[in-house]
Amino acid sequence: MTDQMRIAFQGMHGAYSDQAARRAFPGAVTVPCPTFEGAFGALRDGEVDLAVIPIDNTLAGRVADVHHLLPDSGVHIIGETFLRINHALLGVKGTQISDIREIRSHVHALGQCRKIRKELGVPAVVGSDTAGCAKEVADLGDKSIAAIAPVLAAEIYGLDVLRTDVEDAAHNTTRFIILSREAKTAPDNGSPVVTSFVFRVRNVAAALYKALGGFATNGINMTKLESYMVEGHFTATQFFAEVEAHPDQLGLRHALEELQFFSHEVLILGVYPAHPFRRDNVLPAE
Questions:
Q1: Are residues 30 and 77 in the same domain?
Q2: Which positions fall inside the Prephenate dehydratase domain (predicted)?
Q3: Does residue 35 carry a catalytic annotation?
Q4: Which pTM does this prediction carry?
């Protein structure tokens, strides 16, 4: 990758998505987008080369907006990366923790830092993203208002780090997918691979049970299965699934054939290398 590579992310500079993009593509230019739709659009329109988007978190679960956007986005998953989430309490220069009367952050970050909020006993204000709240605190210049955000945001916006690691759980980790306009299928060479796809089951009794049976009988490990309604219909349910196998492998090929028999609109979103974190549960040092 060169320094001309441009990577879109949702949020402002200093957000966790920005941090994940910088780690995955050192030297690349990260491009902030206010919304997930904006990041997808920047990629589709050729304004950026790739996008790094969060898809789920060990505490907060799935990022629902992304699951809804992916099927019709026209882009492809070509990789994944994981980021350990280390929340920090940030304030303007010279702030003491005793000065704080309000904490601002993204709703998920606030939910992941209940202990520090209880300790300080101050109200929380929900913002659009962690880095955006850090910038708000910097712009206001008010010692009574703090933000929960990455340390990177403190460096960018000139804030003091009042306390690090304020998250409640040490395992707090977010998984990000790497998106491209062009499909890039990982080779079937024996290395661990993830296949992501969406499908809709037919509206008949036991359709999901029958559709998924082929994965069990063919020994395919399904690591993710999320459901959500589409087009405002209670009977139209779409599923996002991920398996640890390659479509060229006989087992997954047979499982997908059986899936198509009991469902419709099966769409493979990406076939990409599995990140080592899946196996080792260890992330590289900063």
A1: yes
A2: 6-181
A3: no
A4: 0.90
